[in-house]
C-alpha cells in the first residue's frame, strides 16, 4: 500500500526525505515526488508548495497518477485553541476552508455550494494512530484532536484568530489541509492532517513562526514516522 506524505515547505519535507530510502524521483508539473520507503513502508514524499491550490493539485497527482491509497499532510500551523502553546500538536478530526465565502447567496461562511459536505472528516483509524504516535514522541507538549481550518492567508492577528475560534470552532489554522481533505473526499481516500504549532496565530505570529518553524516541523516528522510503523 503506497502512502502519500505532503508537506508545504522545505522545512516540513527535508527532515523526512533525509531518512527515506529514495528509489526514484518523478517530477510532475513543478513538483518533485520522492518515491521509496520510510520505516519499511512504501511512501511518496512531496513538497506541494504553500496554499490550497498547490495542495489540491499535489493530492490529486498522488492519488490519480502515483497510486497513493492514504494521504498524510504534515507540517506546522498557528494555534487557535486556548490551551495550545507553541510546539503543541493538533491531529485533525475534520478540516474546512475558512476563507470560502458565498454568504451573499445565503450560504454559511465556509460552506461550498452544491456539495454534500464542506467539512471533510479525517479517517478515524489514521487519527488514532497519529494521536498515539504523538503522545509517544512528545514528552512535554500537549496533543489534541480537533478541527483544522485552512485558508490562503497567514493568520497573524488576534481579530481573525477570534473569528476562527468562534465561527469555526477551530483548534488551529494553516494553508493546505482542507484542500487535501477535499481532494481525498472526492476520491474516497483516507487522510489525516498532523500539525505542530509554530505560532499562536496572533500579533506575535510572524516572529514566532520564524523562530519555531524548524522545531515544529521536526516534531511532525517524528509523529509521522511513529504512525507509519503501525500502518
Which descriptors would you attach to this protein?
231 residues; alpha/beta; Rossmann fold; 5-stranded mixed β-barrel; 10 strands; 30% strand
Largest beta sheet: what is the strand line-up? Answer: 5-9-8-6-10
Strand content: 25-35%
The level of helicity is: 25-40%
Q: What top-tier CATH class fits best?
A: Alpha Beta
- Write down the CATH topology: Rossmann fold
User: What is the number of helical segments per DSSP (H or I, 4+ residues)?
Assistant: 6
Low-confidence stretches: none
| SSE pattern, N- to C-terminal | EHEEEHEEEHEHEHEH
| Alpha-carbon distance between the two ends | 9 Å
Rounded to an integer, what's the Rg over CA atoms? 16 Å
Q: What does the average pLDDT come to?
A: 94
**CATH architecture verdict:** 3-Layer(aba) Sandwich
Q: Major beta sheet, specifics?
A: 5 strands, mixed, barrel
What does this 3D model show about the protein?
There is one protein chain. This protein has one domain: Rossmann fold (3-Layer(aba) Sandwich), CATH 3.40.50.1580. It is α/β, with parallel strands linked by helices and 231 residues long. Helix 2 packs parallel to helix 5 and helix 3 crosses helix 6.
Brief summary of the model shown:
This protein has helices at 10-17, 52-64, 124-137, 158-168, 177-187, 205-228, and strands at 3-7, 21-28, 31-38, 41-47, 70-79, 89-97, 120-121, 143-150, 172-174, 191-199. With 231 residues, the chain is of the alpha/beta class.
